[in-house]
Amino acid sequence: MKFNSVQIAIILIVTVFTACQKDAIEAPSAYNFERNGQSTVSFTGQTQRIAMAEELIAELKNPTKTIDALLQMYSNTTTAGEDANPFINEVLNQSNKSIKSKVAASKDFFSSNTTEAAVIKADFENWIKAQVTEVFPNRNELAAPGKAGQFADETTARYANAKGLEYNQAVNKGLIGALMVDQMLNNYLSTTVLDEGDNKILNDAGTVVDGKIYTTMEHKWDEAYGYLFGAASNIANPLKNLGEDNFLNKYLTRVNNDSDFSTIAQDIFDAFKLGRTAIVKGDYKLRDEQANIIRELVSQVIAVRAVYYLQQSKKALPINGSKNYGTAFHDLSEGYGFIYSLRFTRKPNSTAPYFTSIEVDELLKQLMQGNGFWEVNAATLDNISKKIAAKFSFTIAEAAE
Amino acid sequence: MRNNRSTNINFALLTVFAFAMMFWACKDPAKPQPTDSFDRTAMLTFWAEQQIIPALEQYGITLVELETAKNDFIQNKKITDFELLKTAYLNAYLAWQTVAMFNIGEAEAIGYRNYINTYPTDVALIETNIANETYNLELPSNFVAQGFPALDYLLFGLLKENEGYLQKLTQSQYLNYLSDLIDRLDVLNKTVLNDWQTNFKNTFINNNSSSATASTDKLINDYLFYYEKYFRAGKIAIPAGVFSGNTLSHTVEAPYSGIYSKQLCLKAFEAIQQFFDGVSFDGLTTGPSLKQYLQSVAAANNTEDVAQKIINQWQIAEESILELDNNFKQQVETDNPKMLAAYDEIQKAVVIMKVEMMQALNIQIDYVDADGD
Does residue B365 sit at the A interface (CB-CB below 8 Å)? Predict the structure, then answer.
């Protein structure tokens, strides 16, 4: 058979197009992935760490707890590094996992930056210690400028240090960044981790981990998912019952309830599903696109919440003579933790956070100057809010209500 | 043909004018500013002189009676005095329902309401305080161990049976606590009432502008917040499990005496309506009110009478409360759907007030629902 040049050209074009035309990858409606009829989704470690963190933040409000007892909950060992049983939930005591080992511990941000990681791990220890040494002994005193004690947030008594900061809030909201967000965005969704060693080859071949039903890459992705949905009662359809923990999941719910961000939970969930599907199909470009969507949106949750609390607190600042400053202090304490968490966010298509440690420290310093929350004014809070919002695609007004 | 010419000019002028009108009219067609010439000063004066201060005074009288009954009981430790004490408690608790909504001035400054009626009360904390014999009732952590809810426990909930009740209550550390709680109610009210009588009345009336910090805007916000959080949520929605999904019968108001919860609720509702309608505290006169204010705005702008809409809905809501058992705990435990039905009717008025009333009055809502963590 003889072809003229036109025919050859046509055949070539058709061939090229056919080769390029892949079946479009579609994600399932739920986070359900199976191999040989068995679910391949697993993230028990994440569920356990969320549970440990829940117990820790609850016990930070228990004035009978000692520094040692609380630090054991943080590290799941004694201070000498021996096995400890600090938790009520026996499963957590049996576990060799801990909160501390995964605080500021992502591959991308901290594997060659252990100096900063050590500082961050110590921040949490210092907050825990100060809760016992500064706040517990003054729990039956009324707080005043320069004096730790309690104040009323509506009908709830809150307990804070001499500057108005509730250390338990710093720990709670700080862990959202240092544990959940850092592990998710900068570790498990990172190509460094997903493609480590021969992960791609094994995943392409469908070779599962010894004794498991999943490939390493599938599992890594699921572990990222677990830091957001690890406490969900329905892990395949977690959006039906959002807010089942006191960490990232809860605040995703809060942001999603703001009509300016009403699709964010669905968008994050969809990206997780599609990315996981892409792994099953071996489409790593599609996978990484989804990772970038998740990075952008999860980072946004942290930033929106930080701005939200700063703006809310403006309604009741003591410097403006408000008598309901307890509500403002509580908002500022939560805001402090979310600002702290900004250093663990991740700009999509980059290796950088939205805010460096130095930038975060600068923002927190403004908040804590002098007598801290007792003195902070609306202009400072607006200034911090502006700096945060400027790096994202939302306005202060959108985040504020 | 002068006429004709003049008509032409007029026509041209008219056209220009019509276009100008169109532009002017189209400038912000979505948000017409309601005409509002209502005399806020007169309303604030009526509120202060005929409603708020008399209510605080009357509440103060019931507290003096409660003090007397308490002192008699402590002295005599007799069952007859105990009965009188319980009656005095109920009267004061009912009077409280008429002042609870006025969280402004010194009341707001000292967190008055939190100390007087935070419930459910914390029985374990009360018992710890009593056993320790040292406690600081000014601490926010002791909100849940004082006020009427704590009295309800001491007077009705110490023991399930009558036998031995007086022996337990008349132990000195119990009597001391009882006495401290009642003294504190009295002190708190004197602080608030004294401020109204000396300084705050004038401050309140003179702050007669319309801005976020003006008295009218603030008190209406307080009023709405009270209706939503303390009346709707506290008395009905929380025990009925509207927010939690599970009924929480122990969270009703006054669960230990039990039989008074409906009476307290109805008294609060009556006070809410009386304030709205502009009926003086003694019931003898009427004055400028939210109702009048809304009606004047409606008349001036030829818009719907929101006041009547609210009043009509309240009538339905009140009927649904009247359907309930005297004992709300009992009601929740035996037939919660009725409690939910009452909630629904109360809630329908929230929607009208929060949206239509506030829009008509051009007042911004200054509170957000607490975020609960």
Answer: no
Q: Which residues of chain A neighbour B136 with C-beta distances below 8 Å? A: 140
Q: Contact A142/B143, CB-based, under 8 Å?
A: no
Determine the pLDDT at residue B28.
Answer: 43
Q: Which residues of chain B are within 8 Å of residue A334 when distances are taken between CB atoms?
A: 373
Please indicate, yes or no, if residue B369 is contained in any of the structural domains. no
Q: Does B138 touch chain A (CB under 8 A)?
A: yes
Task: Report if residue A92 sits inside a domain.
Answer: no
Q: How far apart are CA A263 and CA A380, in angstroms?
A: 31
Tell me the chain B residues in contact with residue A323 when contact means C-beta distances shorter than 8 Å.
108-111
**A150 and B139: CB-CB below 8 Å?**
yes
Residue B2 lies in a domain: no
Q: What is the DSSP letter of A166?
A: -
> What is the SS3 assignment for A142?
strand
Q: Provide the domain count of chain A.
A: 1
Residue B229 included in any domain: yes
Percent of chain A with pLDDT over 90: 87
- pLDDT, residue B8, reads 46
In a domain, A22, yes or no: no
Whether residue A130 is contained in a domain is answered as yes
CATH (domain of B351): 1.20.1420.20
B114 to chain A, any CB pair closer than 8 A? The answer is: yes
Output DSSP code: residue A147.
Answer: B
| Residue B269 resides in a domain | yes
Domain range spanning residue A244? Answer: 103-400
Q: Quickly list H helices, B47-143.
A: 53-76, 79-96, 106-110, 112-116, 123-132
Using the Cβ of B139 and the Cβ atoms of chain A, whether some distance falls under 8 Å is answered with: yes
Res. B365: pLDDT tops 90: no
Stretch among A190-204, A258-272, B27-41 having the lowest mean pLDDT: B27-41
* Partner residue opposite B138 with nearest CB, options A142, A250, A401: A142
- Parallel, antiparallel, or unpaired: how do β-strands A38-39 and A149-153 relate? unpaired
How many domains does chain B contain in total? 1
CA distance B270 to B263: 10
Interface size A-B, in CB pairs within 8 Å, comes to 41
- State which residue of chain B sits closest to A401, comparing Cα positions: B368
Residue A23 pLDDT: 64
**CB nearest B140 (choices: A157, A250, A401):** A157
Structure tokens at B356: 């239509």
Domain carrying residue B115: 34-361
Residue A81 has pLDDT above 90, yes or no: no
Cα angle A384, A388, A394; round to 5: 130
